[in-house]
Amino acid sequence: MPVRPVIGGIGSPGALSEALAAAQYDADPELATAAYLALALGKPLLLEGSPGVGKTEAAKAIGSVLARRVIRLQCFEGIDAAAALYEWNYPRQMLAIRQAGEDYLNIYADEFLIARPMLEALRAPEAAMLLIDEVDRADHEFEAFLLEFLSDFQISIPETGTVRAPVAPVVVLTSNRTRDLHEALRRRCVYHWIDYPDPEREARIVMMRASAVARSTADAIVAAVGRLRAEPLAKPPGVAETVEWAEAATLLQRQGAPWPEAFRRAIGVALKDHDDMAFVAPRLDALIGGEAA
Ligand SMILES: Nc1ncnc2c1ncn2[C@@H]1O[C@H](COP(=O)(O)OP(=O)(O)OP(=O)(O)O)[C@@H](O)[C@H]1O
Ligand SMILES: [Mg+2]
C-alpha cells in the first residue's frame, strides 16, 4: 500500500497533534498516532469509547485540520442503503414525466438522484471526509454492506452504473461499543480506544472549550467528575458534561452563589439520569470535595 507522506501538509503524529490543538482538540499521543497512520496509510480510522469522550469531536477536528468538509452519516437501528447511499426522488420524477408529455425524458438523470453521505463522499474524495458516526447502532447487515464499501470505495447504481472514487476518501468511524463490531470491519481500520482524559488533559480541555472559567474551578470540577465516574452510575459524565458543569458553576458563582454551593446547584448539567441523581444526592458533598475555586 503506497504511503501518502503529505496529507494536508502533516508530516508526523506530533505535527497532527499540534494541528488538532489549533483546531481546539487536545489529542493524546496515541490518538494522534492512530489518526496519522490512518491518514498516511489511506485506511479508515475507527474510534471507540464511552459516550462523551470526544469521538465525534476528534473526527470533526481531523476534518478541520485537513480543510475538508465533514460529511456525517449518523447511524441508527434499521439504517439502510437508501439512507446511506442514494435515493431516487420519485415525486420529482413523476412531476417531470407529467411536464415532459411526449418529449424524451431521462428519469435517471443526476437531477433526480438524492445523494446520501456515502455517495457524496465518493464523489468528492479529495474535498470531503466521511464520518460514519455511532456505527454500533446499525445492524449486522449494514455493517457487512459498510465493509464492502470500505473495501473498494465504489457504489453500483443499477440504473446508471458504478460510481468509483478515484482515491480512497478519508473515513472516520465511531462506536460507543454498545455491541462488538465485526472482526472483518475492525481489521480494515486503524483502531483507537479513546479513554476519559487524565485530569491534566481534562482541565486543559475545560480551559480550551469553556468561556471564562478559572483554572482552579476547572481543576475542582475535573476532580469531582473523576470521583463521579468511579461510582456505579448509569450515565457517567462525559467530557462535554465536565465543560458544561464548569461553565454553569462559574455562571452561578458570578451571580453570587458561594463556592461550593454554585458547584452543587449546577449538578444538573453533569448528571442527567434520575436514578444517578438520587444515588449521588446524599454523597454529593463528599464527591464534590472541599477544593476551593
Ligand atoms: N480531547 C478533546 N479536546 C477538546 N474537546 C474535547 C475533547 N474531548 C472531548 N471534548 C469535548 O467534549 C464534547 C463531547 O465530545 P463528543 O461529542 O465528541 O463525544 P462522543 O465521544 O462523540 O460522545 P457520544 O458517544 O455521546 O457521541 C465535545 O463537544 C468537546 O467540547
Ligand atoms: Mg459522538
TrEMBL record:
This is MoxR family ATPase. Residues 41-200 form the AAA+ ATPase domain. CDD domains: AAA (cd00009).
